[in-house]
Amino acid sequence: MRRKLAIVAAVGPGMGLAIAKRFAREGFDLALVGRSLVQGASLVSEIEALGATARVYAADLTDVFSIEAAFADIRAAQGPCDVMVYNGGVWNEGPPLAMPPEDFHRDLALCVTGAYACARAVHAEMKGTGGGVILFTGGGLALAPEYGVNVASLVAGKTGLRGLGLALHEGLKADNIHVGMVTIAGTVARGGAFDPDRIADSYWTLYSEPRSAWTAEIVFSGAS
Fold this sequence. Notes:
The protein has helices spanning 15-24, 37-48, 64-78, 101-128, 152-171, 196-208, and strands at residues 5-9, 29-34, 54-58, 83-86, 132-139, 177-184, 217-220. By secondary structure, it is an alpha/beta fold.
């Protein structure tokens, strides 16, 4: 019997690892996508300790061609995926309009274009195998952008991502693909209300929903 596969794109030691471990505990194998093979490899042992197989794939998630190549490698090595989680984003702080436009463009590409490209990379295979789940990591600044005056690129990126996620939620229902988003309305930090392991449960909740109750967005506010 084939083990299910979860892809986590933009994986790191915080939210990305927590999501990967949450799915590993449910019997999934993992494909970890990130810029650094070295950083990804350092996380593999934590995931495999849970009984999963995990592999690492290098990709620049601001580059569509790099994304397509990594996802082709995943299909060849591990087969079709059942769930793809996109976790890209970057906090670049500075006065409004101080960021060079090329840096703003890069940050926007990481938040939005990378998410679109990753979703597109798994869409055909999910449709062909009868369905799947695509999940995005959103940010509370998309709901209250006035609090992000010094992180303009992140505000724009998470706002754009939220719009994309809500549109795809409706647009891909016909293909039996559930698109959902966990919007994290706070600062992720271990040991507190926004501990990544607590937040990761929301991704599993979205994955587990029956088609009749598919949710477009869970806003994680830190409440117990």
